[in-house]
Amino acid sequence: MPTIIAVAAAFAAFSILLPVIPLAVISHGGTDTLAGMATGVFMAVTVATQLITNRLVQRFGFRPVMLVAALLLGLPALWHMFSFAAPSVLVVAGLRGIGFGALCVAQYALVGQLVPAGMLGKASGLIGVFVGASQMVFLPVGLWLLDAGVSMNIVLLLAAAVALLAAVMCIWIPSIEPERPEPWSPEHDPAVKKVSLRRRVTMRVVRRPRRKGMKVTIAPAIALASVSMGYGAVSSFLPASVREADPISGASIAGMMLSIVGLAQLVSRYISGSIADRQNKAGLGMLPGLALSSVGMAGMCAVIAWGLPLWLLIMAAVCFGAGFGLVQNDALLEMFLRVPRERLGSASTVWNASFDTGTGIGAITLGMVAASHGYTGAFLCGAILVMLGITAEVIDRVRRSRALAKLSASEALR
């Protein structure tokens, strides 16, 4: 429970500021490009931090790493009480990115070691529920407060207080030693044991720990990153686009939309994890999730472009959030099932790097699109980018089918 509360509180601090910072940058005279760069730099530093987080965890343990990460998510943003100049925006974004990167990798690696392999689906789904609930509640909070006339300084103080709560809860995180990779030996490699070839190929569980062993995570990583690019546009520019259409209550409406996206992610992630455990197979929701995400982005584009009723925007948000949740959980489970248990930390790094790289690239590139072609163009491009994920997933499935056919033919000849 302390782990769950700490993670939920840390994501709350992150969620409060995620849509607020780009909106505040624009409100203080910054450009859409700078607003997108704030998110982009945040995610770029996040990814860079994720690449070294496993070594930090091996050196210091889960508890200290997660405690410092929680503090960095909220405290640096207090500098915005004094300045929203471009250098300040980018430096603060970078500092917060360090905290977010370390937290993301450490939390999933910790969960992967706390629970047995047969419960990874439910465990990842459960952590997804609490993260999703935190995002659902706190993504709109900052926007609602600003719309109600509360000063930006109060919003920044609130985020810092929540980050401090997360850091305090990290003190009670279970003290366990992270698993360390062991040298490969034939007697410990399931690939050389008498395991069904069909099961090994379809489940893709067995991979020898080798230098290029993480290549097996490429397809789910591309799928996740493609949807995350769209999320970068949604989190950075949906508030500004809705406020542009409705200056009076636009921020509150956008906050509700972000909350709906979070709720849909919460539900679909848990459902995805439960189905994966019941069917003993991951990836069943990947293609439906990618399709739903693309439809949701296209729907947002249509509503904003043609001034359609708001209930259609709600439907688009539900589609995008549900699809994003399915892709998140299935990508995580596929990565976990493709690597040895001692490489769960590396798989967690790949998952988080894919998520955050996609979000950062999406925020920057689609921010440039928004600056030149408006928010409608940004959301339309986001919908198109999801097609990259669909293509990667289809190619991966075709490759697996061919491998299965070859192995089946080989078995038949014996």
Describe the structure.
By secondary structure, this protein is an all-alpha fold. The chain has a single domain (2-174, 189-413), classed as MFS general substrate transporter like domains (Growth Hormone, Chain: A, Up-down Bundle), CATH 1.20.1250. It has helices at 2-17, 20-27, 32-60, 62-74, 86-114, 120-138, 141-147, 152-170, 197-203, 218-245, 250-279, 286-306, 310-338, 344-413. Helix 1 packs antiparallel against helix 8, helix 4 (62-74) packs antiparallel against helix 5 and helix 4 (62-74) packs antiparallel against helix 8. The longest helix is centred in the last third of the chain and has 70 residues, at 344-413. GO terms for molecular function: transmembrane transporter activity. Pfam families: MFS_1 (PF07690).
Give the mean pLDDT: 82
State the CATH superfamily name. Answer: MFS general substrate transporter like domains
Order of helices and strands: HHHHHHHHHHHHHH
Tell how many strands the DSSP assignment holds: 0
What general outline do the C-alpha atoms trace? globular
Q: Helix/strand/pairing class, anyone?
A: mainly alpha
Q: What is the beta-strand fraction?
A: under 5%
Give a quick account of the main beta sheet: strands, pairing sense, barrel closure. Answer: none
Flag low-confidence runs: 184-212
- The portion of residues assigned to helices is over 70%
CATH-level-2 architecture: Up-down Bundle
What is the fold named in CATH at topology level?
Answer: Growth Hormone, Chain: A
* CATH first level: Mainly Alpha
Kindly, what is the distance between the CA atoms of the first and last residues, rounded to a whole number of angstroms?
A: 52 Å
